[in-house]
Amino acid sequence: MKKSILCMATVAVLFAFLPNQLFGTVANTPLSTIVADSTKLAETSTMNLLMARLDEINAMDKSNMDRAEKRALRKEVRSIQREAKKVGGGVYISGGALLLILLLILILA
Predict the structure, then answer these.
(1) What are the φ and ψ backbone dihedral angles of 106, each rounded to 5 degrees?
(2) Which among 74, 91, 90, 86 has a CA at the least distance from the CA of 46?
(3) What's the Cα-to-Cα distance from 13 to each of 17, 62, 68, rounded to whole Å?
(4) How confident is the model over 38-89, as pLDDT tens digits?
(5) What is the DSSP string of 1-67?
């Protein structure tokens, strides 16, 4: 009994958040989507530049460099890696959300 009520409540919540594509309407693309696309393009070009610089540094012959030059390269590599983390972003799921998703999968399966 409790399981069926929980399943019905879950189905009701899922139907409350239906995507617009199911209704078959064609919406105009908002400006925010266009801005997001251009931002994404800028981020990928930035990532390409950062990765190219890292490749250049890795291809360098460091055997004839003195200690200060090597240290400067290490600092540059670290700063490039930090910048790549900022630009790369990613999807983060909190522990509670992950637990909720797993519980829903176990209950509904």
Answers:
(1) -65, -40
(2) 86
(3) 7, 59, 60
(4) 566 567 788 888 888 889 988 988 889 999 999 999 999 999 888 888 776 6
(5) -HHHHHHHHHHHHHHHT--GGGGTPPPPPPHHHHHHHHHHHHHHHHHHHHHHHHHHHHHS--TT--H
User: Which DSSP letter does residue 105 get?
Assistant: H
For residues 11 and 108, the answer to whether their CB atoms sit within 8 Å is no
pTM (2 d.p.): 0.46
Q: For residues 73 and 57, is the Cβ–Cβ distance under 8 A?
A: yes
Contact 46, 87 (CB under 8 A): yes
* Domain residue limits, the chain: 31-108
Residue 57 to residue 35: CA distance in whole angstroms: 33
Amino acid letter, 49:
L
Both tokens of residue 96?
């509670």
Q: What is the length of the chain?
A: 109
